[in-house]
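User: Predict the complex.
Assistant: Input components as received:
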Amino acid sequence: MLERYLPILQWLKVYNRSTLTSDLIAAMIVTIMLIPQSLAYALLAGLPAEVGLYASILPLVAYAVFGTSRTLAVGPVAVVSLMTAAAVGNLALQGTAEYLTAAIALAFLSGVILILMGLLRLGILANFLSHPVISGFITASGIIIAASQLKHILGVDASGHNLLEILMSITANLGQINLPTLIIGISATAFLFWVRKQLKPLLIGLGLPERLADILAKAGPVLAVAVTTLATWGMDLQSRGVKVVGEVPSGLPGLQLPGFDADLWQQLLISALLISIVGFVESVSVAQTLASKRRQRISPDQELIGLGSSNIASAVSGGFPVTGGFSRSVVNFDAGAETPAAGAFTAAGIAIATLVLTPLIFFLPKATLAATIIVAVLSLVDLGALKRTWDFSRSDFAAMLATIALTLVEGVELGIIAGVGLSILLYLYRTSKPHSAIVGRVPGTEHFRNVDRFNVETCRQILTLRVDESLYFANARYLEDRVYDLVAQKPDVKHLVLMCPAVNLIDASALESLEAINHRLKDSGVTFHLSEVKGPVMDSLKRTHFLDELTGQVFLSQYAAWETLGRQTGCNHGIETRASA
Amino acid sequence: MLERYLPILQWLKVYNRSTLTSDLIAAMIVTIMLIPQSLAYALLAGLPAEVGLYASILPLVAYAVFGTSRTLAVGPVAVVSLMTAAAVGNLALQGTAEYLTAAIALAFLSGVILILMGLLRLGILANFLSHPVISGFITASGIIIAASQLKHILGVDASGHNLLEILMSITANLGQINLPTLIIGISATAFLFWVRKQLKPLLIGLGLPERLADILAKAGPVLAVAVTTLATWGMDLQSRGVKVVGEVPSGLPGLQLPGFDADLWQQLLISALLISIVGFVESVSVAQTLASKRRQRISPDQELIGLGSSNIASAVSGGFPVTGGFSRSVVNFDAGAETPAAGAFTAAGIAIATLVLTPLIFFLPKATLAATIIVAVLSLVDLGALKRTWDFSRSDFAAMLATIALTLVEGVELGIIAGVGLSILLYLYRTSKPHSAIVGRVPGTEHFRNVDRFNVETCRQILTLRVDESLYFANARYLEDRVYDLVAQKPDVKHLVLMCPAVNLIDASALESLEAINHRLKDSGVTFHLSEVKGPVMDSLKRTHFLDELTGQVFLSQYAAWETLGRQTGCNHGIETRASA
């Protein structure tokens, strides 16, 4: 029991010197990678740079204690930082104390929501984000993030909550373009794209082992940061208009519970819920990918608790919402991390950096951080998914397109809410007209098949309808319409058999419809039967009066129905000749 | 084509003298019943009494032209009148011209929405109102309506949008109770309850035929209206504080298109949508019940057009939202109506009443109308449904209880929206953990059964999982978790077969999960196979790259999978002994 909620107890027991060495090496590599990322994502969220560092210390320690993935690396990530900016930007101006307070409160609320979901085992809620919606949302977020960082590359002022606003604001201020900033921005972006695409093959060509080449290529941003910072300092570019990170308080964050503020919390609640679910879905998917590579297991419900405590740890130490990141987790995994202790060591590394390196960050150009972000998020943009989804399913495509369009035009929160709503409605619509078929007997067998596809025996007085879907509110009335239409079309019918081998569930609405069908068929002189009802469905029907009122019988097999009713009606079986051409 | 949109063309062709006689008799009876109802429901909607009459003339003619039910009687009904009061009460004060304008605009919008839904064949949307939600909503509405009419019975002032507000407002004003009003109110209520419960058996005991006794019992309200009106006039009760209907303009309503008012229409849009759907669901269910008694058919999509044109006709002639009513349709049916012409004749009857009877209505006490409403709506209250639903399904019960509670506490609109949302979420939750089973071979056969229930043959290197549900976004990740857990638990497994005989649909999220399962199993050295995939599902998989990337095969039958993989692995089949006790 204790081990379930404290996964650290499991791996700590078997911790040894070799695991320690692996974890330490991985932690060093991840630390180097995480420093520019943390600064950049704080910038993206509209927060001071040091907040990004704070969000990369305690949250990692909390995840090491409560998380179930051995290799997940937690911290600020792009999409969640954008959602933070959108949520907090509605309530306060960037740069104010209120803005920071709201971001911290958002992390705290999100942590509480995640832990509650974990304790209530509601990890399943994340399922309601269908894949097309999350994929469309991430693509649109990537586009918005890249657009929002353009201003740092150009050195102009701009703002806006959606793509159009951002682009118009940048266009209006194009006159402000700062040349030194633009040179730094463009060369950093070009360098990082080159690193991403070409450095690894180059290093392998030079004879480096693949894993090392991979890790070195991931360290590209650190080099960009170092070079542009040195250049800005050496050439005094700050006085020529290049915006830099500036004074960053050195020293570790103080620990403090966020103050209770009912108004603020209420305003942030929906945003916190959305951030929690989006962050959880992303994180769990990364954790699952890595775990299965080593045949390890993660527990989605305990992951909620792990991520929740990370967010509370972030809030307590002055940070903003965090979750498991894809690229850093892969680096952690590839660098050989074996236990969550690697995360704790990374935290220590970032803490040391916060103490030691902050003076060096002063001259780091914001354009370099923006370049880091742009290169990272453009890899999230996957417009090809639109084509693939279109080929596979039109209704999934509609949900994806709506999510992308609304996220770009109306902002992240409305985008994701509309996407979720639409994918649910489309699913209900798809199942609201279930596949059903009138069936007849394959001559000489006990099998029954669709009369439109096979040459089968039927009988004028007996009509058998097979439904290939669970019966529930979205299709209950369709079933009624179908039955009444059939009976109105075929005046000779005396018995209607509903064949239920694919009915996994009957809900109260469908029960009501079955009762209505029973009564209305009785009024028109038709006896209503069921056949091949599954065990659990039969059990639930037995708890109602339906079986008492049923005018006909429940047959175990369709063949039994055919035999019994055929005898009763003295039916002359005729072969239907409607076989498909 | 023309006949589809103008059902009148179908029945007019075969209209003859005998049909005419039947329709005329039914129309007379329904007219007598409809006059007090129309006045009462206008009162309930917070509108002048004559508006109820206006809503019972042209709408009936429009339905006779466009409707598909032979016997449905359209007009003002209780629940829709309450929803009208709630929607319009937010925007204007009762008794003002704005209030009437808004009610007319609501009827117009609702008509437009219904016709659009009909043309787009979206009758299916009504399905999203699950039975527990609609039943809970009607019960709660009945309680609110009865409570809201108490003030007329007591003769006190009161107002409020939900049960608590109404009851507190009445309690606060109990000092105002008017004795003559109370006497009229209580005796009318008692009389009407007696008529409803006891008059019919009494008349039958006196030797009257059952149908006549039934119709006479339904005319009880007319008697109550006549007697209390006479008493009020004769004893001059108006001067002793009995509130009466008062001056009602005599003459037919003028025809006028409602003016376009973008602000007003936008404010009413959601309300109009809810009223349209609730009204449609009620009306279609009545129409279907009556049609099946005579083996007739109705067309739900054309019904939307019929009800939509009724509402537009209502708006054009100064009325408020209407729909098909249960009790009046049953009377119409029992009185022998054969075609919608009976509705047109009823309209003529009400028109004559509007011209002739309005002076007589002056002294009609509001308490009598309130008694009519209370007796009518209390028959809608069905608290027993809570118990029945509890017995059948806990999640349907939760949706019903939430709808009742929220409707009573927060009002009709929030109540129904929350109910719909909750029933969708609960359905998704129920299907998010689909039934699945590890299966093995029944020795000596080609059948495969659950290893937990049967003595079956299995093989350590081959794992077969059968899923009994369509795979879609709500359960896609559950399937992944289940597969990863199984593989992590069983290190010997080399082949995993997913057996899909009950999978009717695979959406893009589930496809993504299958791809992830394929890749991750590959990473852990397990080959992934499918078996018994249905034709349409296979077709959609063929449009993707999934089958190219699949590490294993798609087997037509599970037996083929068993044979092929058994030979490959040189498997020694062992009998699983986990058969249930």
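The mean pLDDT of chain A is 88.
Let me know if you want any component modeled separately.
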